[in-house]
Amino acid sequence: MKKTSIVSIGNELLNGQTVNTNTTYLSSELLSIGIPVVSSYTIGDDVDAIIRAFNLAVADADIVLVTGGLGPTDDDLTRQAFAGYLGTELQLQAELLDRLENFFKKRNLRMSEKNKIQAYIPAGAKVIANNLGTAPGIMAEVKGKLIFALPGVPSEMKRMFAESVLPELQRFTGEQAVVVRKLRCFGAGESTIAELLGDACKRGRNPLVNCTVEYGIITLHIIATSRDKDTARQMAEKKEKTIRNTLGELVYGTAEQCLAEVVGEKLARQGKTIAVAESCTGGTVAGLLTDIPGASKYFTHGWITYSNAAKTSELGIAADLIEKYGAVSEQVAQAMACNARKKVRTDFAIGITGIAGPDGGTEQKPVGLVYISVDSDNGCDTKRCLFSHGRRSIRLRAAQTALNMLRLRLNI
Amino acid sequence: MKKTSIVSIGNELLNGQTVNTNTTYLSSELLSIGIPVVSSYTIGDDVDAIIRAFNLAVADADIVLVTGGLGPTDDDLTRQAFAGYLGTELQLQAELLDRLENFFKKRNLRMSEKNKIQAYIPAGAKVIANNLGTAPGIMAEVKGKLIFALPGVPSEMKRMFAESVLPELQRFTGEQAVVVRKLRCFGAGESTIAELLGDACKRGRNPLVNCTVEYGIITLHIIATSRDKDTARQMAEKKEKTIRNTLGELVYGTAEQCLAEVVGEKLARQGKTIAVAESCTGGTVAGLLTDIPGASKYFTHGWITYSNAAKTSELGIAADLIEKYGAVSEQVAQAMACNARKKVRTDFAIGITGIAGPDGGTEQKPVGLVYISVDSDNGCDTKRCLFSHGRRSIRLRAAQTALNMLRLRLNI
After folding, report:
1. B390 contacts chain A (CB < 8 A)
2. How far is A43 from chain B (nearest CA, A)?
3. Taking the complete model, does pTM exceed 0.80, yes or no?
4. Cis peptide before B207, with omega less than 30 degrees from 0?
5. How high is the ipTM of this complex?
6. Angle between helix B190-197 and helix B229-247 axes, rounded to 10 deg
7. Which of A53, A184, A224, A411 sits CB 3.0–4.6 Å from A235 for a disulfide?
């Protein structure tokens, strides 16, 4: 099996200013195509240290991915270190210079002298095109090992990795074509999903199905490998179909989609509107929904009725009802959703009430207890949930569960 | 100058599941006491690879900080690797075993046989107490270099670093006592603050003042070094006073405080209440405020009046006013805050309206334009802001600016 090592370059990674999310991203992508990362080195802006890291990484792995240090300033030294490692000199690439000059001309900007260094790459190395910024990447093959240097800016790095590195890796790992599809699931734990999928998740299968989890969202990576791309694509599609059949409504989306995006698309497509009445989540559901560009097409009203008085004055919930069942109850959640919808005549409304903690829990109503209601013309559903892992996690999981309930309503 | 190298251990760091925030945290803490991190190695759960990383780190630096791999399961191998690096054996520590057994007894849990391994440390090494979990840390001094191994769980790692590692580092860096104080600022850019502070921020000063920035929040680290702790503390306090005098209300808090926490404390202490009326931020201000435990003491009502109809129906804003000035205008922001406060009789109210983008901007009212009003008995202030860097950043910066305006009102 081929292995990768990652080298991250930049003082900002060693002084606490920047969290190294590039390594996490690349690790996940590489694992998904079956080329695991075995080591990762982070060093500052120093030519000798970078060359040393190149040597360590090449000793560890077949493929070395370097990020950072390709900018135009004096402390961007990856270019020089790459040449030093190869034992060659930097050479001006006329084509790169043209491209750089055009980049600035198009934007009506003057190109600084400093930027010219970005038109140089080590003799014998190849250019990796950067369609988003000024820093081209560099690629070289040394004794059967592949070294790629990409900029540290995440958006540029990700695009160049997808456009230029992934295809190279497929060539490098033999005659194989690899197709990866991601399915995003919500509503069941990792172990339940693994159980439902059975043998599909076993190691060594083709397509291989890997599973990662983040804040209750489960991502299935379907990795199909074959001699040619078409066959691999067909295999991945077939496996996706099988998994979708098995998991049914647990699958909510593909690629990098979040729940709010999927719910938003459905609302927009169906021409429906939504209002949200939140207590314990304090605006989290509205915040997730309105984080999506164009949310104003379907999101119109939201209330954060944090106090009992607010529930009564803004949503007309009878004080008697709150007194009888408590503010955290099925009845109040339901009244929040129904009254909100009635008041502003949206197609859907969500009501949430619960105890986010750390205080306020009792034996009957512990911290983490949340009631979530979704109301529409088809009636009102209420779910009783018990979340854990602290205030933030309770609020976020409650909000996501609400969005998921709405999604299922919109699946009709 | 002393240097540090960090070794992070765990397969989860190399398969994309976990972002390595421990290294970022430690780098920032170490920089703040003047012991910069020069390299960072991440490897999987493999004894030989860990020993190799120990050797690399010891070659790079005077202090080596290792995190992860101290749990009770078979893939937790830092203990064994540490012994291997030292060329010694693991030895049972009777005291550690007692402590472990007590840990489980107190929680009415049965201790698994697996946990016993956590009572072993390499011969010749010292135990670092863990008051939050079962994994003790390990410390050893080799040829004048200090090696610390801490658990990977961030909460445990941070506490043990503060309680046990920092004091050791102070001993190790000579006869010096180091006192660090952090000041958190909002309302001006990094360069403005540096300009205001003048020489205080220059390298080589004592106290040293370092500056880090995250989402508009500027953290000043005041690092005072002296022969004895009392003198260092006095120096840090004196410098803090000078900086506070210079920056005035730009300083909003200390240590790890966020704006919502400081605002919440002030509201609670003064017995005041707050309501929030949001358009473009869509619940972000309410979300930040209610993220703080105990927010129900002062936060009562929130509205997300995303549509014009919602602004009229929920907050009684005249349709004429919206038509005349536009939904994104000083007049509407002001009406949102004033009407919200009048409606529910809170002491303060915030109104926010703007264009978060990516669409909806015009030449007169571009994407990023946000009006923020804060209303109280002392009148209504409105601020016109122009934020950038995309929808999320615009929304978050607008929300933080609103909290900061509220903070300044509460300073009276």
Report:
1. no
2. 5
3. no
4. yes
5. 0.76
6. 110
7. A224
